[in-house]
Amino acid sequence: MLHPVTGAWGEWGSWMACSISCGTGYSARYRICDSSAPLFDGNDCFGSARSYKQCNIGPCPINGAWSEWSVWGTCSQTCDTGVKQRGRTCANPSPAHGGQACVGNSTDAAPCMIQETCKVDGNWTLWSYWSTCSVSCGIGITTRHRACSNPSPTFGGKYCVGSNSESSNCTEASEGCPVDGRWTLWSFWTQCSVTCGTGIQTRHRACANPSPTFGGQNCKGTNHQTTSCTEPICRSR
User: Fold this and answer.
1) What is the pTM of this model?
2) DSSP E strand boundaries for the chain
3) Among residues 10, 74, 138, 168, which is most buried (max CB within 10 A)?
4) Contacts of 118 (CB under 8 A, 6+ apart)
């Protein structure tokens, strides 16, 4: 009579490749019940034909993703129209292990309007050309002007500082233009007419600053002045 022969496992095969290409997975190996095959109604090999172990290839790439937009910031202007901004970060999650960065902008802008209209201060235009002289001969006046309209003050803005006009003397000379005479400065007083006692001093001026020409008026007044002078009392002989 033949006795039953229980089967026996053969050697384990090599570990197979990891089940994933990154991160943590599993590797398997196999064995066959062929070291001695079960005979004569003997029992099959006891245990599992497969064995598993954990394998770690390395961290998987993580692509970045945007966080939520922040609240809008304050308007860049305190009146009229400006710009407001908001931001977001590529941290939901951040890119890691060679993952791709977020696509798009990290900032966003939009126009914003403050209801109050901005004040505009006035500014002068350039001066105009000087006007023609107020006389055709002799000394007259010429003027020039400017306007507070570059720009004009609006919405409570300040008016331009300074005058909107100015004037200057002008001289027109033509043949036959009457020129009134004017006195020169007085000369120094002459020495006293005596060396002792009471005498006289004089001084002079001329109608030559300028001299009257082309029918202009002569200088008014006298061209000389006298005054008394006193020298030490003379000694009697």
Assistant:
1) 0.41
2) 23-30, 50-58, 80-87, 107-114, 138-145, 165-172, 197-204, 224-231
3) 138
4) 77, 79, 80, 155
